[in-house]
Amino acid sequence: MDITQFIQQLVNGLSLGAIYALIALGYTMVYGVLRFINFAHGDIYMLGAFFGLGLAPRMQRIFPGSHSIPGALAILIASMLLCAAIGVLIERLVYRPLRDRPRLTVLITAIGVSLFIQNVTQLLCGADPKAFPELIPVRAIEGLGDLTVLTSQATVILVTLILLFGLHFIVQKTKLGMAMRALSLNPTACLLVGVNNNTVISFTFALGSALAAAAGILVALDSPSIEPMMGNVPGIKAFVAAVLGGIGNIPGAALGGLIIGVTETLVVGYVSPAFRDAIAFAILILILLFKPDGLLGKSEREKV
Amino acid sequence: MSRTSGQVLVLAVLALGVLPFQQTWGAEAVIKVGEYASLSGGTASFGSASHKGTVLAVEEINAAGGVLGKQIQLITEDTQSKAGEASTAVRKLISQDKVVAILGEIASSRSLEAAPICQEAKIPMISPGSTNPKVTEVGDYIFRICFIDPFQGTVMAKFALDSLKVKNVAVLTDVKQDYSVGLAQFFREYLTAHGGVVAKEQSYSSGDKDFRAQLTSIKSSKPEAVFLPGYYNEVALIVKQAEQLGLKVPFLGGDGWDSSSLVEIGGQSMEGQYFSNHFSPEDNAPQIQSFVKNFQTKYNQTPDAMAALGYDSARFLADAIRRAGSTDPVKLRDALASTKNFGGVTGSITINAQRNATKSADILVIKGGKFKFMQTVAP
Fold this sequence. Notes:
The complex is a heterodimer.
Chain A: H1 3-34, H2 41-62, H3 69-95, H4 103-125, E1 130-131, H5 151-173, H6 175-185, H7 187-192, H8 197-222, E2 225-226, H9 232-245, H10 250-270, H11 276-290
Chain B: H1 3-26, E1 30-37, H2 44-63, E2 71-78, H3 85-95, E3 101-103, H4 108-121, E4 125-127, H5 134-137, E5 142-144, H6 149-163, E6 168-174, H7 178-193, E7 197-204, H8 212-219, E8 225-227, H9 232-244, E9 251-253, H10 260-266, E10 274-277, H11 286-299, H12 305-324, H13 329-337, E11 342-344, E12 347-351, E13 357-358, E14 361-367, E15 370-377
Parallel strand pairs in B: 1-2, 1-3, 3-4, 4-5, 6-7, 6-8, 8-9, 9-10
Antiparallel strand pairs in B: 10-14, 11-12, 12-13, 14-15
């Protein structure tokens, strides 16, 4: 086996996995606090990319020059804020009124929300794939010999790492983060000690949606073609990543995303591209059969 | 408002709603033609282009007095670029709208889905742009006005060997599209039969965004060119990612490349790549120039090959209805089958025994973000 080629595939896999990881965090956090899968999450990721597309020409007026780093950063942050607001809005308008209903009702509603977002986007922006502007200069980093690492791939990995540390800080060191952790353990007890559960849930949606928006922008930097249905497949794979890592577990989701991304790339490179989408589901089946709580999930018995 | 007057009002509204339908039932004042196209979803760029061409043709035919003294009414259904939607659309057009013939679709996979339904109902179907051979094999009511994959795959293999002088070519196929698999098969057959070698075979699925794994392994096989018979959206990303990975060889493709999105997304990396196509708006033939002009007036854009094929499909059908002298499905079918040298904007169309059009292909090269005409290859 050619070792350079193998390392090349690992790099390719890591930058893909970082995207899955960012989306998976949203699934896992919402599951943590509400015990339900927000299937509209993949579409928030798509919206993130579309906001970036819409914001790019406006930002260029504020930060002149086609490749300004502050401009790219401003687009990233603005798109994350917009998606955070949309995440909060969806929770407030759709999921909160259904909170005491059976989980199946909420789950089906989430699929409805997903289709709604896709179709509204398609109506407003058209179904054609759009070219995403090159926010940063995309080229191969020099001095690595035969290995090709693109600036866009490095950006994906770097920004993901920064966001992961930021998230870790928020969840572990802030009061809202502590409330999130507490809520995922016992919502009733949280209410009893005076936690405003609604605020915490809104915050969780905002956080997850912002990360999905970042993933959308990052993927568009690296593969500059976006369209309204682009959230479907990555959304499902990120969900599998969240289950693989142990749904509800934040480091687990990040790990799961990386594992799915790397496995997928290696399978495409060394076995057959035909298995690309199948591999995520094969992993899902295996994990559900042999370790249903996921790699980092704690097994907890439901008390009867 | 009293209850009875409310009921009367409801009845009146219902009656008004029904009236227009009764008029159309009363006298068949129009010839209904069905169309199914991907107006939304992944291949919407093709679907809406062919739809625009079809609409333009129908408008021109109607403005010139229609056919058999009747106006053509086009009824369009959107397949959303999804499997399963084409059959629903065609069933609706046949059973509910009672159309005399059906135009559609661009994508071979969806034409293959709808064709058996048209065949069973004995309603002639004309595909404007499905190039997979299997489409017209479904039965004697299925026609197409474009050339087929064996021709397009062969043309590109011939072009690679004779004009580009390359022997060692990698092939990258979209496994989800019958179209792509078909082109690749005939490219491979011609190439290997005439002294060429397939350096590496790889594949992807429509909708993928990351092709680096495949490209990394293609690069290590050191090909002189890559045959990439896919659709524009993935093609643009693939060629871009290939350039970034340092795989700098010519890419060759088929008519699936023909979209302005190709250059918008692929940018500089698309320069100097080649593909075969049905039509070039640069052709100076008066008929083509008048079509290009009318299309630009109506839609404010230059027609691409799919628009030209959509345009030809409607005119080809109108011509057959005129020659059949009726919309009777059997007579119409026979008239379609006996079409000879019909002057389309995509070339002269003669229907052969397999109900395929025999016509020539153009090879285009991308220069300065534009598709430049290079050469015509006859069958």
